[in-house]
Amino acid sequence: MLIGQRIIAGLTWRVEARAAGLSPAARARVRDLCGRALGIARAHDCLPDLAARAAILCFHGVGRRPDPQVEEGVLPVRGLRAVLNTLRRSFRVIPLAELVNCLRERRPLPPRAVVITFDDGYANNAEIAAEELDRLRLPWSAFLPAGLIEHGRRQWVDDLRLLVHRGSRKRLSLPWEGRTLAFELDTPGRRRAALAWLIDHLRYLPEERREELWRQLVEPCPPDELADLRERFPGFAPMSWAQARQLRQAGVDVGSHGLSHIALAPQTPERLRHELSEARRLLQLRLGSDGPHFSYPYGRPASISPATEAALGEMGYACGLTLEQDTVRGERAALPALPRLIVPAQAGRILLTLWQRFAR
């Protein structure tokens, strides 16, 4: 087993070294192929039984035939099954509450421990992912943006994907720091670049400013265009409260992902309290409880601050989940800001990442 582990480790790091000189897209394809090969070969079975670390995986949307451009971050069902089958066979999938209790009580983590979480409350989490997870009897957590579910609203970042990739406009304009920026949308590469810039720069703004800029982007669009695009791409729709109740009744750990899915750290103290307290009120009203765990919207350092961590502590949350790309190390884990590994649309990439994180 040790010899096989060393051989596989050598091959995977050689692949990584070769891929380092490729373009990001080509590098992702190479990592995907390598990870899928590891899964088919059941290479994860020979990982060491490390008890000092765990991985919290963060899934988002799941689709049957996702559009590779508009829904580039959506995991196909086939990929979901490949990941879940590997987790069930080669790892110990535990509830988030068990991991938190181990960390709080300073007990050793179970060997090869993995926690499954889903962010953003998409309807496909309830309609597709829940069935796959239930079939394999795997515990998981779902984190819901309560305000979006309450009003049936979509995230602005998903609407932006629709407008950039499938809208009628060939150029977007945005006032920014005293000048007007123009984003050309005439090629797939330019659309991807425009989308990345707009998301990265708008999502960490105070919400009032972000809403103002969003209105300026959307207003020049034909009146019914966004509504028509939403009908064409139902995969970004939020789940209903009825679906959330079904998950809770089935034993799924359902927790808060904030109210409006906005970055918390840039907001005023009043807006921060509103986002947390109103989300809790809605979850308690609609589900009977908001759960003991919280997932930060966007989850990056710009979303988190001492003030946000203090607010979670005051509200009694047992942990806060980030999107810092790392495993949980038992000896130095911070419950208010636990790292997770994002599961991308290419299932092989997370299978390779899991191998690398647990092989050393």
Helical segment tally?
A: 14
Indicate the CATH topology of the largest domain.
Answer: TIM Barrel
Q: H/E order of the elements? A: HHEEEHEHEHEHHEEHHHHEHEHEEEH
Q: State the end-to-end CA separation.
A: 15 Å
* SS-derived structural category: alpha/beta
Round the Cα radius of gyration to an integer and report it: 21 Å
The first-level CATH class name of the largest domain = Alpha Beta
Helix fraction bin: 40-55%
Query: In the CATH hierarchy, what is the superfamily of the largest domain?
Result: Glycoside hydrolase/deacetylase
The largest sheet, given as strand count, sense and whether it forms a barrel, is:
9 strands, mixed
Shape: globular
> Judging by the overall fold, what is the CATH architecture of the largest domain?
Alpha-Beta Barrel
β-strand number: 13
Question: Which quaternary structure do these chains form?
Answer: single chain
Stretches where pLDDT is under 50 for at least 5 consecutive residues are none
Indicate the mean pLDDT: 93
Can you tell me the number of structural domains? Answer: 2
| Strand portion | 15-25%
Q: What would your notes on this structure say?
A:
By secondary structure, this protein is α/β, with parallel strands linked by helices. The protein has two domains: 2-152 and 238-358, TIM Barrel, CATH 3.20.20.370; 156-234, no CATH class. 48% of the residues lie in helices and 16% in strands. The chain has helices at 2-19, 24-40, 77-90, 96-104, 123-135, 146-151, 156-166, 188-202, 207-218, 225-232, 241-249, 269-287, 306-314, 347-358, and strands spanning 53-59, 62-63, 75-76, 92-93, 113-119, 141-144, 171-176, 179-184, 253-256, 293-295, 319-325, 328-329, 338-342. The strands form three sheets. Strands 1, 4, 5, 6, 9, 10, 11, 12 and 13 form a nine-stranded mixed beta sheet that branches. Strand 5, helix 5 and strand 6 (141-144) form a beta-alpha-beta unit. Helix 2 (24-40) crosses helix 14 (347-358). The longest helix is centred in the C-terminal third of the chain and has 19 residues, at 269-287. The radius of gyration is 21 Å and the shape is globular. The relative contact order is 0.18. The mean pLDDT is 93.
